Amino acid sequence: MRPLTRTFYLTPCLTLCLVLFLALPVSSFAKVELLTFDSPQHEQRYKKLIAELRCLVCQNQNLADSDAELAQDLRNITYNMISEGSDDDEIIDFMVARYGDFVLYRPPFKTSTLLLWIGPFIILLIGVLSAALVIRRRKRQGADTVDDAQLKQAQTLLRD
Amino acid sequence: MRYLIPLAVFVVIAGFLAAGLKLNPREVPSPFVDKPAPVFTLPRLSNAQESIGTDDMQGKVWLLNVWASWCAACYTEHPLLNDLAAEGITIIGLNHKDKDTDAKRWLSDLGNPYEIIAVDMDGSVSIEWGVYGVPETFVIDKTGIVRYKHIGPVTEQDMVEKIRPLLKALEQEPDKQVSYLLPHQRTAA
């Protein structure tokens, strides 16, 4: 009696697992977009642009990685603009005109982003200067701290 | 004196962190605020033969509310839009990537705050307006300039603190030359 009950429960469960397993590759295939490019240069530019433009919906992904609907639309726009002969600057201007500098993963160098660009160098400079200061002070102190008595003591210790 | 250095460093860092806490990273500053609204013409939800666009709105203070029946956040802000419409505010709906039947059922169930609804089936007008999530709400003045953009559902607080005072102020403004943004004028700021 017991084995029968077991198979009775197991069969639908296994079937469900099998169905889910078979459904898995279908859903991952669905994400692939098939695009044909006029030239390898176009493909290169397309890949570079969608890697540099940020998806506005999932903000820590670029257009290339994002599966959001808006990212798909913006990828299509990028593809169409490239096919129609727009250059990279025109495509980037199109995005910036609509979504602001935020779409760019590489922010432009201007007054509002000045601190962002030069901030790390200022911090590095402070770090280097304070390290130099500390080292110099240590050196000077190091020369003063060992007096004759200590030197003699050290020599006797070394002799033993 | 030298013991004050760590304290000073702490105060500076705490200051930056405190400012950072108040910022909302979801809120992307719109390049449209105080700039001409992007021009559009779309079919109406009520009758696809008729159109609605920026040209029909000249000389009016109006709201453009981007919504969809599949959008849960739109559901929460809907009663507030109904209230606003009842006060006589012109709200134009931009129905984003929706099915006509779903959109119409939504309106018959929840009430219709929109004077006219434009159907943006493929979402292209939303992209022209820099929309990246539904709902979004724009306030446009009499001269066709976008004066405010709200991302996400409007709350009662937003209504009281920002939108109502702004609408009141804009109504007082003179009706000057209308200046919508035409496609060929578009350049990055």
- First-residue to last-residue Cα separation of chain B: 48 Å
Encode the helix/strand succession of chain B as letters. HEEEHEHEHEEH
| Share of helix of chain B, binned | 25-40%
How widely separated are the two ends of chain A? 90 Å
Structural class of chain B: alpha/beta
> Helix/strand/pairing class of chain A, anyone?
mainly alpha
How much helix, percentage-wise, in residues of chain A?
Answer: over 70%
Provide the CATH architecture of chain B.
3-Layer(aba) Sandwich
Approximately what portion of the residues of chain B adopt beta-strand conformation? 15-25%
Named CATH architecture of the largest domain in chain A? Orthogonal Bundle
Poorly predicted ranges of chain B? none
Q: Could you walk me through the main structural features you see in this protein, from its secondary elements to its overall organization?
A:
Chain A has helices at 2-29, 40-52, 69-83, 88-99, 114-145, 148-159. The radius of gyration of chain A is 32 Å and the shape is elongated. Chain A has two domains: 33-108, Cytochrome C biogenesis protein (Helicase, Ruva Protein, domain 3, Orthogonal Bundle); 113-159. Chain A has 160 residues and is mainly α. Chain A contains six helices and no strands. The model of chain A has no long low-confidence stretch (mean pLDDT 83). By secondary structure, chain B is α/β, with parallel strands linked by helices. Chain B has one domain: Glutaredoxin, CATH 3.40.30.10. In chain B, the strands form two sheets. Chain B has a five-stranded mixed sheet with strand order 5-4-3-6-7. The longest helix of chain B has 19 residues, at 4-22.
What layout of secondary structure does this protein have?
The complex is a heterodimer of chains A (160) and B (189).
Chain A: H1 2-29, H2 40-52, H3 69-83, H4 88-99, H5 114-145, H6 148-159
Chain B: H1 4-22, E1 41-43, E2 51-53, E3 62-67, H2 72-86, E4 90-96, H3 100-110, E5 116-120, H4 124-128, E6 136-140, E7 146-151, H5 156-172
Parallel strand pairs in B: 3-4, 4-5
Antiparallel strand pairs in B: 1-2, 3-6, 6-7
